[in-house]
Amino acid sequence: MKGDRTIKRMLAAFGIVALLATACGGDDGDSSAASGDGAGGGGRGGSVTLTAEDFSFDPDTVTAAVGDTIELSNEGESPHNLQAEEADIDEDVDAGETVSIDLADVEPGTYDFICSFHPEDMTGTLEITE
């Protein structure tokens, strides 16, 4: 029957699309280590999220690997900054914006960071692993 062939073709097309989406998705399925809580970098090319809002960083301790990026998101209404002088990081982020900070050239180690606009209130620790 003509209707049965149409349904079979649609199911086959859907299967192909699902297979391609799985193969090309670019997501390894482990988003908790790569982003979200910012507590685990999880390898080269991953990312961790750091949020600046209401004069605090969340989390205030970030662990990432050499080659990862920090996605610095400003959820507040004031401009903020991430500055870790010993790691040669100094990146501004406007209110409502997100910037990516490349850690490819940062040596493994532990670094203190601040918001240079609000240094008494906004501090944290960055741990870079190999």
Could you characterize what this model shows?
With 130 residues, the chain is α/β, with parallel strands linked by helices. Helix content is 21%, strand content 38%. The strands form three sheets. A four-stranded mixed β-sheet has the order 2-1-4-7, with no helix packed on it. Strands 3-9-8 form a three-stranded mixed β-sheet, with no helix packed on it. The longest helix has 23 residues, at 2-24. Mean pLDDT is 78; it is low at 10-43.
Set out the fold topology.
Layout: H1 2-24, H2 31-34, E1 47-53, E2 56-58, E3 61-65, E4 69-74, E5 80-84, E6 89-93, E7 98-102, E8 109-114, E9 123-129
Parallel strand pairs: 1-4, 3-9
Antiparallel strand pairs: 1-2, 4-7, 5-6, 8-9
CATH fold category name? Immunoglobulin-like
Note the run of SSEs as H and E.
HHEEEEEEEEE
Low-confidence stretches: 10-43
Output the strand order for the largest sheet: 2-1-4-7
Short description:
The protein is an alpha/beta fold and 130 residues long.
Keywords, please?
Immunoglobulin-like; 130 residues; 38% strand; alpha/beta; three-stranded mixed β-sheet
